[in-house]
Amino acid sequence: MARLPVYLRALQALQDRGTLTVSSEDLASAAGVNSAKLRKDLSHLGSYGTRGVGYEVEYLVYQISRELGLTQDWAVAIAGIGNLGRALANYGGFGTRGFRIAALLDADPAMVGQSVASLDVRHIDNLEEVVRSERVSIGVITTPAASAQGVATRFVEAGVASILNFAPVVLNVPDGVDVRKVDLSIELQILAFHAQRRAGGDGRGAERAGLELT
Amino acid sequence: MARLPVYLRALQALQDRGTLTVSSEDLASAAGVNSAKLRKDLSHLGSYGTRGVGYEVEYLVYQISRELGLTQDWAVAIAGIGNLGRALANYGGFGTRGFRIAALLDADPAMVGQSVASLDVRHIDNLEEVVRSERVSIGVITTPAASAQGVATRFVEAGVASILNFAPVVLNVPDGVDVRKVDLSIELQILAFHAQRRAGGDGRGAERAGLELT
DNA sequence: ACGTGTGAACACATTCACAGCT
DNA sequence: AGCTGTGAATGTGTTCACACGT
Fold this sequence. Notes:
Structural class of chain A: alpha/beta
Order of helices and strands of chain A: HEHHEEHEHEEEHEHEEHH
Oligomer: homodimer
CATH class of the largest domain in chain A: Alpha Beta
CATH topology of the largest domain in chain A: Rossmann fold
Distance between the termini of chain A: 41 Å
Radius of gyration of chain A: 21 Å
CATH architecture of the largest domain in chain A: 3-Layer(aba) Sandwich
Largest sheet of chain A: 7 strands, mixed
Number of helices of chain A: 9
Shape of chain A: globular
Number of domains of chain A: 2
Largest interface: A-B, 74 and 74 residues
Strand order of the largest sheet of chain A: 6-7-5-4-8-9-10
């Protein structure tokens, strides 16, 4: 379930604050969801709560981490070391541990050999070799749109079955390969859509949401 | 509907290739969805297709752009000019036009005054003034987690009702304010979750998805 | 008394299948 | 003949409300 990571983060915040036990009501509001939904989600992992009391924070953190596969380390390769790729490489806090950036790849010869986030950028031609030697299981694509499909196919053929795609294209991959997409301009467009609805939605655009309040 | 931006992108690709008309079947496969779903989505905007023929690409592009509010320009402010904020500021291709980066804000005095993507970084204390003078209607938060809620509240009070949040926290905002969240480590955790399922899901972690294929 | 776990009701999204227009 | 638009069927996710354990 896609909400487990959110619960985990909320639980870790509680843990840092020294909280030992938490009710579904409190955890739900910290995670921004309905309490019944949270209980149903947690009951899917087995029943780790105590009626009349709540959930033991530490135990639940461990159970969710295990369910998410964070008790092992996942090697990640980033293909495309432009602005975004560099930002990801330098973004130290990949949440709680569980992920290790194992390789940076780029097609530009001028980029190859440079050191980014204390890793040497390697040429994309080495993709297959790097996936094998570093046991990469997650591929992150931050290339231009035109190169994304090619890189994805190479990742898949090299044995990577999990891909995080930042390029603005729909990737074609075989069944069994898991692709998640993050698209900044789509997020902005969705915000604009709702903003326009608020403002009247007639396409005139005279009164924007932000202006109504001033 | 959150799929309109995807359709729009697919249509623009067709347009660039000189295609004049497209069937729901073809457009659906380009966008990676079921054709019935696509037809139902499009029928929500009114009936812009011709039975026996398909949809006229140019007309549909215009209709979707209008529905999404892309016929007007939205001013965007980015708060937090770290690696990610810089990457976003420099990411020229904010899809098709419709968005203009109007201001960059940061709390670090050493950052203020620097030029990023040919914009001067301004101090976060100027947030309210900048929102007013630039008519900002979308706020992007790329600050550290600890500062995100404060920045969000200031955006909202300044009249910004659309927020794109990259900080790993759940933001608390009043009703009527639209928050979308992009969280890199959550995306990775979801991938890890599915990868573990594929690999057996027993938490041993001996055989990873990537290794099964080698 | 308190709060979890869950059946039942509900709301929503997806898919099927086909009538009807061009 | 071909393809859209859409009722009907199906599936999935959410919320309610309360029985039951502690």
